[in-house]
Task: structure prediction
Amino acid sequence: ADAALVPHVTREVAGAVCTLWLNRGERYNPLSLAMIDALAAELDAIAGDDTVRVVVIGARGKGFSAGHDLKEMRAHRDIGWQRTMFARCNRMMQRLTELPQPVIARVHGIATAAGCQLVSMCDLAVAADTATFALPGLNTAVFCTTPAVGVGRNVSRKRTMEMLLTAAPIDAATALDWGLVNRVVPATGLDAAIGTLVASIVARSAPVVALGKRAFYAQIDRDLAGAYALAGETMACNLLADDAAEGIDAFIGKRAPQWPSARGGAR
Result:
């Protein structure tokens, strides 16, 4: 098939889960401008879709993503194009944290440079035990500056700088130890491990999950006083929500909660 006619991202819906598949597997799913725009469009559509409770980002082919499309970047020798590409990529990456639904990265093979960044910007990440991660930009004299924004918010500064300065890959076990991923499982167990996380999330109140996710990212980079001020106000509002009343009553009554929001009640 003509590659131009094949979608860069495909969508697969199963119940309350929407999986977005990076669909340039023959090239290790480079984050070209077209791939970035396709992902952004899907995320924008999902943000307003109440039927989607969890988003999974996976990839076709032998690996997750090799990062930005170096051939495309070399073909554009003007600062305007480069600025536009990075602005759109940065916006897409931030959209992952702004989405009301939790986002889980499903990682196999390589996740390098902006591909590693994409993993770091998802709320959760499950990796195959054969996956590898790297910030290898210095190998081509292009420092992985934007990938370091996400990775440096998951991994300690010293370890992020080690990835940046050595350009050496780390294996899945190291990524788990360093905090880049939540789970490492055999490749055949990826979907089952993600399914366990999904089941836990879907059982909760959707509006409270959205509220909590938004508050977490809003407070995490503030100073201590500012973080507590925002978190305290969020919890005060949360406790007045119908779902919170039901959740507490169900806990006290030792019964399963029946979320008003799931019945179309107050959110």
Strands lie at 9-14, 17-22, 54-59, 103-107, 110-112, 124-128, 132-134, 170-171, 183-185. The chain is about 50% helix and 15% strand. The two ends are 46 Å apart (CA to CA).
